[in-house]
Design a protein that fits this description.
Distance between the termini: 71 Å
Subcellular location: Cell inner membrane
Radius of gyration: 47 Å
CATH topology of the largest domain: Elongation Factor Tu (Ef-tu), domain 3
Structural class: alpha+beta
Strand content: 15-25%
Number of strands: 12
CATH architecture of the largest domain: Beta Barrel
CATH class of the largest domain: Mainly Beta
Function: Could be involved in resistance to puromycin, acriflavine and tetraphenylarsonium chloride.
Order of helices and strands: HEEEEHHHEEEEEEEE
Number of domains: 2
Main location: membrane
Strand order of the largest sheet: 1-8-11-10-9-12
Largest sheet: 6 strands, antiparallel, barrel
Keywords: Antibiotic resistance, Cell inner membrane, Cell membrane, Membrane, Signal-anchor, Transmembrane, Transmembrane helix, Transport
Helix content: 40-55%
CATH superfamily of the largest domain: Efflux pump adaptor protein, beta barrel domain
GO biological process, one term: response to antibiotic
Length: 343
């Protein structure tokens, strides 16, 4: 009777290898999860501005519709320019009239200046005559005692000296009057500068009546139409700056140690989760509103915790700038998923 051969014992090496590989994979997954934070608590966002007119007036042209994309320099709306055109025409007419008045006044001033120069020459002549009369009197008076001149000669010298002084005072008054008349054109020149400033301001207001897009963007919250009276500094609609899109991703505070500015990120939007976008961390938030009713600071974002009956890690917003965003997919508030590369 033949005996059956015994089966060789199976090696345990393959099983141990599988277990080892599983442990390595588990360690890798744990490391990956710990060093490469990920969150689905994220949303797309972009900077916005309120489009406000800087002058008041009735809207006569509205060149955009709600949710329309615009390019930098595109016409948004136009305010009735007629009041500002009228103000400009009035100011320019005032300037023309003032220039004519200045021209006529300048002619008069030139004549007055000529008269003033003549009076100044007369003043010098009168001053010389008064000096001569005074010198003559000073020489004549001592001669009376010596008998070389008569008292009548001395009286005539005194009369001549007084007359010369009177003539000098008279021409000095004429010179002062002529000088004051010459300075009268300065006020008109100063008034012209004020009118020119008014013209410049009116031209600026007329330019502001036409409002154009300051950058590439998209119009939202448009709730007005042609004929509406627009008040200066009151918003007409909002304009999204579509040149730069970013994602606000709320990460647990325990993940922040692995996040820093410049960390590469992968972004997916809920509207099309099969498409990914690359980005980089721009900044990490340093303040959120607490849930326990503690100190509240205006302007801080509020990030709700997922469970409020268990002490869980707070979440802080991380701003991720998106490279080459799809303008048709990105919308403010769109749900997103953010995955950061391990650091």
């Amino acid at each position: 009777m033949e005996s059956t051969p015994k089966k060789a014992p199976r090696s345990k090496f393959p099983a141990l290898l599988v277990v080892a590989l599983a442990l390595v994979a588990l360690v890798f997954v744990i490391w990956r999860v710990d060093s490469a934070p990920s969150t689905n608590d994220a949303y797309a966002s972009a900077d916005t501005i309120d489009v406000v007119p800087e002058v008041s007036g009735r809207i006569v042209e509205l060149a955009v519709t709600d949710n329309q994309a615009v390019k930098q320099g595109d016409l948004l709306f136009r305010i009735d320019p007629r009041p500002y055109e009228a103000n400009l025409a009035k100011a320019e007419a005032s300037l023309a009239a003032l220039d004519k008045q200045i021209m006529l006044t300048q002619r008069s001033v030139d004549a007055q200046q000529f008269g003033a120069d003549s009076v100044n020459a007369t003043v010098e002549k009168a001053r010389a005559a008064a000096k001569q009369a005074t010198d003559t009197l000073r020489r004549t008076e001592p001669l009376l005692k010596e008998g070389f001149v008569s008292a009548e000669d001395v009286d005539r010298a005194r009369t001549a000296q007084r007359a010369a002084e009177a003539d000098l005072n008279a021409v000095l008054l004429q010179a002062q009057s002529a000088a004051s008349a010459v300075s009268g054109v300065d006020a008109l020149v100063a008034q012209r500068a004020a009118v020119e400033a008014d013209i410049a301001l009116t031209k600026l207001h007329l330019e502001m009546a036409t409002v154009r897009a300051p950058f590439d963007g998209r119009v939202i919250s448009l709730k007005t139409s042609v004929g509406q009276f627009a008040s200066a500094m009151r918003p007409i609609f909002t304009l999204i700056d579509t040149r730069h899109w970013y994602v606000i991703a709320n990460f647990r505070e325990t993940d922040l140690k692995n996040i820093r500015s410049g960390t590469p990120a992968t972004i997916r939007l809920m509207s099309d989760s099969g498409k990914t976008f690359e980005g980089k961390v721009d900044s990490i938030g340093y303040g959120v509103l607490p849930d326990d009713g503690g100190l509240v600071l205006g302007g801080l974002p509020k990030v709700s915790r997922s469970i409020n009956w268990v002490r869980v890690a707070q979440r802080f917003p991380v701003k991720i700038m998106v490279d080459k965003p799809d303008p048709e997919m990105f919308r403010i508030g769109a749900s997103a998923v953010a995955n950061l590369e391990p650091q």
